[in-house]
Amino acid sequence: MSAAVITVETQENLSQKLVIQRPPFGLSLQGRIRVPGDKSISHRALMLGAMAGGDTQIQGLLLGEDPRSTASCFRAMGADISELNPEFVRVKGIGLGNFSEPVDVLNAGNSGTTLRLMLGLLASHPGRFFTVTGDSSLRSRPMSRVVKPLQQMGGQIWGRNGSALAPLAIQGQALKPIHYHSPIASAQVKSCILLAGLMTEGQTTVTEPALSRDHSERMFRAFGAELSIDPETNSVTVTGPARLYGQKVIVPGDISSAAFWLVAGAIVPGSDLVIENVGVNPTRTGILEALALMGADIQRENEREVAGEPVADLRVRSSAMHCCTIAGDIIPRLIDEIPILAVAAAFAEGTTIIRDAEELRVKESDRITVMAQQLNKMGAKVTELPDGMEITGGTTLVGTDLDSHTDHRIAMSLAIASLVATGTTTIHRAEAAAISYPNFTATLAEVCQ
Ligand code: S3P
């Protein structure tokens, strides 16, 4: 078998075209690879490190654009964060409540996690005034999901559309604790309120309709916060004001990035790929369950616990794939993996149904519409549903001109789809991948043999 020809063309405006030419007799994916650090854990390590007393050392931080946005916002409020490096980052904490008032607008770039989590912290910082914004995608994403509960706590926040859209202005206040029943299972909402609770005298509780990722809870505890969890009701309570102490954080590989290789290995015939050091926190492993339901052959090897998070090596070998239905409580545990699951479904036999995933419409792009449009351009049979997709697999995918819509997960999902498409696929605005996976193209070239 011959290798795929993969080229990147950078345009004058710095936008990149990723061109993938599959060899006529196909290819297979082989090797042992590592994926970059977990994005959710990287954000939280930088934030808690900045809020703690003493030094925090971070190993394995994701060097993507999103954590860079978090680091630059916290530096602008006085945190001393060393140069970002996956080997080692040192954060000299300034202590909870000690952030300085930034002299300029805090820019969260493309990162919803940076903006939403930071809002909890800013709103509960008495005596300081903050302004926050983001790129055009982030400025169109709903902020009322965090602004409303913060306002219930007494937070003062102003912005367009009744404070629903960034740019936002925040006058920090001493807040009052609340018990917030979130209408959506969202780790960003939960973490925002809990961060505000760290600074707030008394007990702040968040109850969510289904369990979302619990990295904040794990890290809050590791840094010394008093936290209680009621798994029966999906409730978390933090007692404030908290004192946080700098820690050593080891960031595992991001399962959301590993997901691209898991699907590629499953659908490209003859593949045998090991992805080492992947975080397998049960609140994130919905993708493994969904792929198992579809007949994927994925083994966990070398399971261990690293700095409070479960980690494993994942071995995937290609297999016959069939349809499944993905809906309900599993959705928050695989929400970021639905674009790449749609690629798996386009390849699998039968009609896969994805429901209860309306949240996809307010991610970095409308991931339901964009995935349906782009996969259909390749000859797939995808029908949009208000809260998901119906995907009939087994059609021949044909390489063509595609667009990431500046969404990192769309760019990478389409690149994986191109591995089972005939001819040449061109993905426009492919530079978006660097938001969460800066070396994606290099690894793609490495594993495609
Ligand atoms: C994240 C939570 C999820 C996820 C996002 C990262 C986090 O968002 O989609 O990529 O780190 O807390 P929601 O909380 O909006 O579901």
UniProtKB/TrEMBL annotation:
Residues holding 3-phosphoshikimate: 39-40, 44, 186, 188, 336, 363
Recorded GO MF terms: 3-phosphoshikimate 1-carboxyvinyltransferase activity
This protein's GO CC annotations: cytoplasm
| Single Gene Ontology BP annotation | chorismate biosynthetic process
Nucleus among keywords: no
Keyword Amino-acid biosynthesis appears in the UniProt entry = yes
Q: Which domain of life is it from?
A: Bacteria
- Where is the protein localized? Cytoplasm
Record-listed E.C. numbers: 2.5.1.19
Q: Which UniProt keywords apply?
A: Amino-acid biosynthesis, Aromatic amino acid biosynthesis, Cytoplasm, Transferase
Tell me, in a sentence or two, what this protein's role is.
Catalyzes the transfer of the enolpyruvyl moiety of phosphoenolpyruvate (PEP) to the 5-hydroxyl of shikimate-3-phosphate (S3P) to produce enolpyruvyl shikimate-3-phosphate and inorganic phosphate.
NCBIfam families documented for this protein? aroA
**What is the name of this protein?**
3-phosphoshikimate 1-carboxyvinyltransferase
Q: Which organism is it from?
A: Cylindrospermum stagnale PCC 7417
